[in-house]
Amino acid sequence: MNEYRADIISTVEFNHTGELLATGDKGGRVVIFQREQESKNQVHRRGEYNVYSTFQSHEPEFDYLKSLEIEEKINKIRWLPQQNAAYFLLSTNDKTVKLWKVSERDKRPEGYNLKDEEGRLRDPATITTLRVPVLRPMDLMVEATPRRVFANAHTYHINSISVNSDYETYMSADDLRINLWNFEITNQSFNIVDIKPANMEELTEVITAAEFHPHHCNSFVYSSSKGTIRLCDMRASALCDRHSKFFEEPEDPSNRSFFSEIISSISDVKFSHSGRYIMTRDYLTVKVWDLNMENRPIETYQVHDYLRSKLCSLYENDCIFDKFECVWNGSDSVIMTGSYNNFFRMFDRNTKRDVTLEASRENSKPRAILKPRKVCVGGKRRKDEISVDSLDFSKKILHTAWHPSENIIAVAATNNLYIFQDKVN
Amino acid sequence: MLGKGEKRKFDEHEDGLEGKILAPSDGPSKVSYTLQRQTIFNISLMKLYNHRPLTEPSLQKTVLINNMLRRIQEELKQEGSLRPAPAPAPPPPPGPLSDSYREAPPALSAPPPAPAPAPPPPAGGDLGSTTPLDACLTPASLLEDDDDGTFCTSPAAPPAAPLRLPAPAPPPPPPPPPPPPAPEKDSFASALDEIEELCPTPTSPGAAAAAAAAAGPDGSRGCAAAKPDDPKLMDPLPGNFEITTSTGFLTDLTLDDILFADIDTSMYDFDPCTSAAGTASKMAPVSVSADDLLKTLAPYSSQPVAPSQPFKMDLTELDHIMEVLVGS
Questions:
Q1: Where is the sequence biased in composition, kind Pro residues (chain B) (predicted)?
Q2: From B58, which residue of chain A is nearest by alpha-carbon distance?
């Protein structure tokens, strides 16, 4: 598979009501899906998601100073809470964050005095009467306009953006720095975290993800390539170089290998909706941490431990650097993350049950129920199992999203988007 | 693939290595651990120099690979320091990122996160700090019986051995090595065995780096005589392959570009030396790498110079091994 295809989905995000689902791709495009209104006539059909708007968010750029391309790939999309009829979202590539307004137009004014219907100016001499233009319905048009462009604030690659609960500010994080922005101000940002060493030779750790607390607008967390998470309080100082809390699990000596550090690198960090927990994803596990306990996670889930013996090969083919994301469901009771072979995994935190499902066209027809999959590690392989060596590592599910209140999930499998819903009885 | 999850016993002697679970002292497991480490070392080097040239490589990936290389290097040093050694521990390695970040081509405002694909002509002094050649040199050099006095850390006497090889002159004097203890002769033989085992790929970095790593600890001891800030003071002249640091496997691209920019490929035909050495099988990979070297002779083009680095290491490394074997 050509990995440079422009339609490879690079981010997926529901908005706060779940009515809209946005995807960003490698080609810099954003596609927004909207859920159909449920109709009384078809009670057996839940609202389905249809394309609502498509627009080009970012274009490839060229950094002449470094003679390097700046990819247009959308790294993250984050929605703002809806405050009027229009929808607002932030989308970012490696260097630039943009605020987009998506609004509907279903009426247009007609009956201008000075212009005719095609917009051409009328000869003033022919105007003899005065009339008031009226709004008449038109075909629905959804337009996306860039309202703000936040550029030139990141030397390194942006990996995260997060909207603050005050809805006035947001942060953008790159490998070494985190900046705080006000939505209204594009020509400056505050640097709130800077881990760049004075001597770059000493650089051994980078920032991998960051997120604001869902309720406390002064708190945020950021994760590192060494498997640590820091909780920072912006009230403490302007530059949050000193953390309030430091989360790190001691290494398990029995699992030590050459790749211990690399597989401990956290690829995603997410607050629970309640704000009490954070979830982190590293290469082989998902961990849930209680904000009040810094020395170890309260839960650890094995995503694909059968890969532990393959780490050298995965290092060689770069798969070990894949950045999987993780998501909470609306009630924080189930967590989900992706794996290889188009598999994704869900863990129920209460029942401790987990399931492996596959997102692929061959295995699922519309309305069909997904069949749980199983990876067989060694020995005899049962009929429906797949052996570790048959896994397709080019089919990776890095990005998933969960509806904020319902059991609807969106799973991005390379260039395909799958939307799964709970079975309707 | 290596790393089949062999059980390793905790070796009491290696307590100092942060309680790492290392291979036991018995032969086969330790060799397989060493082989795996060597393989990972090679892979890491290849990764650093084989990124897509069009966009900036991921800083996270670069940092993780650098950390891996440093860890392996530390391990080798500590293994070396466990053997009886006259020299104290070597200076801490200059960060692999230092050269990369300094030598950004036009980047004036912000250092690039990784070695740039088409580095500009070097600015003299900065470049001499570390080269992979240093690391490769150490094992062969150390295996000579020269005394301490000839060990030269001053930049004033660069051997520039591989560069002048094509000249009709007799082979240049080898870089003065620190004295190895007598047991190293045996380790050299075992090092060559390891090289042989690693030779399956025609890409020679395995051979060169294997030799480097296998006798690496000795090289690091050899560097002990170097002053800690030597990397910064090293002679800017190309071909200064003194063992002033043991850390140089993370190459200075620009320096190497200069070194090999104008070199005729006929230089890298080691056949006469090979036959004379009698260790032809070990040297065989060199001729294969000549083709790869051809690709590297365009340092200022937009093509990545990257893939050349391991092969350049290989040449110098093998050159010095040859000198040792020939007894020059």
A1: 85-96, 108-123, 156-182
A2: A157
